[in-house]
Fold:
Amino acid sequence: MASRSSRIGSTILGFLTRSGALYQTARAYSEAALSGYGRDQELEADGLGARYLADAGYDPIAMLEVIRVLADQEEFAREVEGRSVSYHGLFASHPRNDRRLYEVIQAGAAEGVPPESTPSEGPFLTLLEGLPWGAPASDGVLVDRRYYHSGLGFVVDFPETWRVKDSPSALSATAPHGAASLITLELREESDKEDPLPTPEAMVVEVMETEIEGGRPFTVDELPAYLAVVKHEGEARRLIAVVQKGHRYFVFKGENTREGFDDAFLRAFSATVLSFRRMRQADLAEATTTRVQLHLATPEDSYESLAAALRLGPRGADRLRLLNGDYPRGQPRAGDWLKVIR
Structure:
């Protein structure tokens, strides 16, 4: 997601969200890095790609097809997102008509190990079955009421029947049936070079400058945490729980506008905070509900009909064309194995 990776820098992570702004920043970073390479470097990379294909036992000239797919994806991105292309400048001609590119790939292929036999497409396609598709958990994914974020390495559950919203500044959950209760989750970060780091209690009192009526330390998934009752005026009541994971502090805020905290709110807030845990390998599979699957094309199939049946939304047919190397105007042939998204 394109990668909206936390590697762009901790200063722009900031929030537990799939925000489009973070995605755009990450994409701009990667494109800026690519734009520093000229034609010679691009061709060198293509030659190496052909060599690696040969070493793996595949037809190295297929590198031309790889580049064609990249060019199609760039063209699709330009049409849909209005952004300029980066890789090879989208070629003035079809990759197979680029003589210099063809010569470089041939040279790279000659340096590789000749394959003993040509692998068939079937075994390769079976490896794609079940491949995750869509927003990566590294950027935060909400599945039902559970939120996964592999980039920050945590999982948290929100209360059943509560309405969960993912915004650029925080995650929030609102109680059902008009109840005046709200739980939010925000991220605060300290420099990982700071020594010592603030304790969770110090984060609440000193860094966040919060006046509290009382509080106590506790642990969540063996991580240090602190629960505080915030001083208030009028009917607004707030709890704050801070869980420390390295130099990151996950701040839960619970707000109940009734006089005093009712039992339903206290149970919901406690369960949410105590559900926080470090992400495990098994969570990655659970966080991805959309996957690549294989479909044997029938005479009645078209990319338009498949996209409609799979509810892929606007430009869904073109996305399937890209996935199957038929962009921009191709259609499936009966008997072909197609990659679809379910």
In short: The two ends are 18 Å apart (CA to CA). The chain is about 35% helix and 20% strand. The CA atoms of residues 69 and 325 lie 6 Å apart.
